[in-house]
């Protein structure tokens, strides 16, 4: 039952992003996905800064940031045309193991939706734990599919 | 009354973006705002392509794109630290006339929220008109505050 619900949530979450991706040039796709990652990364970082007390921790603000992270986490995946590694951290492994890449996308979407749901409640310890779980999903994908240089 | 409602909607829309912007470097701010504009521009373009019949027009897909445009339209404005024109289309006029710049931000936020509301209804002619009105707001700001080179 739990797996069924998760699958339904995932299907619904991913379906909000229209499937007809149209990028005139490969560079436009790279620009789009880097843009989505940049904005997501900033708002994810803001949650971290609130948890560390560098900026005020308010349920409203953390929840707004987590909602943005969850929205943005669904976007970049339409923008990985085959072999688009130029001016990018994308590793060729993305197109060698598309199943694994897709599995990690779905994991991120599920985890960021969970973080957004938890953030609404405003419990700092619970948010911290969900934040850590989300950071692990980022790292898991970066370790395999993102070059450091 | 109408003006009061509009002001309340605007205040509520803009307040979802946490006010504590923290960018370690000016380049990070430029990267963030350019990212937000890139992603917004892509989804705005997808509405145009659906209206022109280049991709299927479905209320669900146009509405998803319009929701993303409305979400993203609220973001870039925290990322204009004074004088940050390097590697950017931003013109110095942004910091010479901050009131006008802010007024156009609010106009865009109001108009993209309107487009998102209209898109839900799925009436192609009404969406086309709201799309055109939104494009005019983009242009109005670009003409004054964005360099072409």
Compact summary:
The first copy, chain A, is an all-alpha fold.
Q: Averaging pLDDT over every residue of chain A, what do you get? A: 90
Distance between the termini of chain A: 43 Å
Query: Largest beta sheet of chain A, briefly?
Result: none
One letter per element, helices H and strands E, the order of chain A comes to HHHHHH
Query: Largest contact between protein chains?
Result: A-B, 30 and 30 residues
Helix content of chain A: over 70%
Task: Describe the oligomeric state of these chains in a short phrase.
Answer: homodimer
How many distinct helices of chain A? 6
**Low-confidence residue ranges of chain A:** 1-13
Strand content of chain A: under 5%
> How would you sum up the global shape of chain A?
elongated
The total of beta strands of chain A comes to: 0
What is the structural class of chain A? Answer: mainly alpha
Radius of gyration of chain A: 16 Å
């Amino acid at each position: 039952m739990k797996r069924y619900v998760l699958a339904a949530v995932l299907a619904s979450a991913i379906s909000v992003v229209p499937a007809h991706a149209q990028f005139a040039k490969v560079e436009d796709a790279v620009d789009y996905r880097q843009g989505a990652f940049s904005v997501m990364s900033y708002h994810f970082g803001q949650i971290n800064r609130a948890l560390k007390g560098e900026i005020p921790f308010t349920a409203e603000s953390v929840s707004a940031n987590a909602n943005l992270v969850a929205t943005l986490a669904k976007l970049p995946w339409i923008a990985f045309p085959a072999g688009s590694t130029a001016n990018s951290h994308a590793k060729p492994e993305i197109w060698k193991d598309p199943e694994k890449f897709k599995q990690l996308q779905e994991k991120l979407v599920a985890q960021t939706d969970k973080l957004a749901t938890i953030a609404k409640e405003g419990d700092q310890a619970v948010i911290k734990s969900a934040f850590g779980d989300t950071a692990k999903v980022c790292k898991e994908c970066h370790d395999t599919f993102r070059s450091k240089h």
